[in-house]
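In full, the data:

***
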Amino acid sequence: MHTQHVEETRTPRGGGHAPAEAPEVDPGWLITRFLACRPPTTARAYAADLEDLARFHKTSTEDVVRSLLLGPETARWLLLDYAVELRRRGLAQATVRRRLATLRTLLATARETGAITWRLESPTEKEVERATAERMERERSSYVFPRHPEEADRLDLQHHALREALGRSYLAPVEGPQRVLDVGTGTGQWGFELCWEHPKALVVGLDLVPGKPGAPAGYRHVRGDVLRGLPFRDDSFDLVHQRYLASGIPLVEWPRVVAELVRVARPGGWVELAEPVMGGRRLGPATDRLQRMFQERAGSLGLDTGDAVFRSVDHYLRQAGLEEVARRELELPVGEWGGRVGSFLASDIRAASTRICEVLQVRGLLSGEEALDLIRRSTQEFEEYRTVWPIAIAYGRKPGRDR
């Protein structure tokens, strides 16, 4: 493995907590119970409403009900997001209210049966209007990489490269986590693997779009945007994990986002960040040109274009009040010269370069022939210049209960 350990520092240790158990509710049983006591016409309408919510989240009806049962903040977030979608479809307010009422009635049934103990406070009309405006604004300043059918494959390559380099899923000294949150989960692969490693854990993956199918039983996807805040209670998770979001979080938002990650971590729980330099080292001329193209696009979106986030991940954690903060840096190889890690990253960077070139081609700033030549030469340069990509991993513990 061609990785270089550069630095590791730690602040004094403190306390911890006893993990809580994940909820055990059979959503299929709840749905059956919910529909069984309704007149046939009402039951069909309710079932159609649940199926529509599941289609919106690109998942099964049972999985979307599992997400609703995670807690009042999560359920309210899901209802608000769905209400925005219904409003954008041009549906009448009465129709929107009826569909949301179906979900409230489902949760009332869950409470009657003892599956949950909390009541749901529905979003108001003003909240729906504000959320609709916020989504439109967010879509005007999107993630640096355009949506593409092959983006999932690229994100998985990125995951496998870092997993191979680290030899584990995370560095924070968490023993037997019961509730884990993965922010900006992408395909969900990190969360899937954590479920396999810790079969009794509940792992929640939060992202704007659903991950890939085939999630383990302990995995839940929640649709959300960390820039709008996390739809979870304070002190909810043993481990909060976030990585590779320098390409999606504006530079000025980082302190606020990290404070939000810390908010939902439990006293004694851990928060871990992993962020790369927004550019490689030991670059050839073609790779350098592609990198400058990427940095120009990132800069236009208010994102980091250098190493500001890379240098600051541990500082963000300390600033948010965490203790025992540790930092580790790696130089990940890019290219076949770097073994499996290098091969994974070379494919990842080729795909990322292709996405950026496609954007420039649409805008008439680059021809298809130029793009192909740049990517071909850049791939050769990985071997010639032995390109590396630095990444920093930092983690810290939230002050609280003694372990």
